[in-house]
């Protein structure tokens, strides 16, 4: 499997292009703030042919470039129905004070073709199999995408803002829920093989095994712990 990614825009949100190999069809995961030019560059450099945009959730730092990217490539965008409203009204998802600071310079809206994700569904796109897991807590409609293991290739989890290296997503914005994110960590992440590569919405690559051993939130989820605020470690993401 081929994965190319880069941190985009003011919030350093990781955008990924995923394909069976260079020169083939691909999916684009989370084209955020100022991501369009980076996406275009990677498509050209690796001779990729986009077939879909996949969104882990609806926060503006993950979807700000969805309209230009979908428009330029002529592909649909996939998002969970509980976060779809954020495409047209991202300020509502951020709260008034933060939203007013951020939205003045951004143009938002839905692309022409929007499709809705469902928990447990398997997307067959670009020669890839991507399992969708609904993972609320950071937002109500947060999801992850995971690929199966293949010969000499470990499984990959595109975790969005559910799980980071050493941390998890914040839960203090509208739709966030500390108890829900802990349940999502337990249901979505803990059953995965330690070799699973985690490509998150912000920060560096990690593995489930490393996070199981070192991430205080994942350890708390394994113990059946309560809301994420009960640990002193900082959370990340918008």
From TrEMBL:
Its cofactor is Zn(2+). It comes from the Bacteria. GO terms for molecular function: hydrolase activity; metal ion binding. InterPro entries: MBL_Glyoxalase_II, Metallo-B-lactamas, RibonucZ/Hydroxyglut_hydro. The keyword Zinc applies. Residues 12-202 form the Metallo-beta-lactamase domain. Keywords: Hydrolase, Metal-binding, Zinc. Gene3D superfamilies: Ribonuclease Z/Hydroxyacylglutathione hydrolase-like. This is Hydrolase. It comes from Kitasatospora griseola (Streptomyces griseolosporeus).
């Amino acid at each position: 499997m081929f994965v190319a990614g880069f941190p985009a825009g003011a919030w350093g949100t990781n955008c990924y292009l995923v394909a069976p190999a260079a020169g083939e069809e691909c999916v684009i995961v989370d084209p955020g703030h100022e991501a369009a030019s980076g996406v275009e560059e990677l498509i050209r450099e690796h001779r990729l042919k986009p077939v879909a945009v996949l969104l882990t959730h609806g926060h503006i730092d993950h979807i700000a470039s969805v309209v230009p990217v979908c428009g330029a490539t002529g592909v649909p965008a996939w998002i969970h129905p509980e976060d779809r409203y954020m495409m047209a009204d991202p300020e509502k998802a951020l709260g008034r004070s933060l939203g007013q600071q951020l939205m003045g310079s951004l143009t938002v809206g839905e692309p022409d073709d929007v499709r809705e994700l469902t928990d447990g569904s398997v997307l067959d796109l670009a020669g890839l199999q991507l399992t969708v897991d609904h993972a609320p807590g950071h937002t109500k409609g947060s999801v992850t995408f995971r690929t199966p293991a293949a010969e000499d290739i470990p499984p990959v989890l595109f975790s969005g803002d559910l799980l980071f290296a050493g941390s998890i997503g914040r839960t203090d914005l509208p739709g966030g829920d500390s108890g829900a994110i802990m349940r999502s960590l337990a249901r979505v992440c803990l059953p995965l093989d330690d070799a699973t590569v985690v490509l998150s919405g912000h920060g560096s690559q990690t593995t489930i095994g490393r996070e199981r051993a070192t991430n205080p939130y994942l350890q708390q989820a394994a113990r059946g712990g309560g809301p994420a605020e009960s640990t002193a470690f900082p959370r990340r993401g918008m």
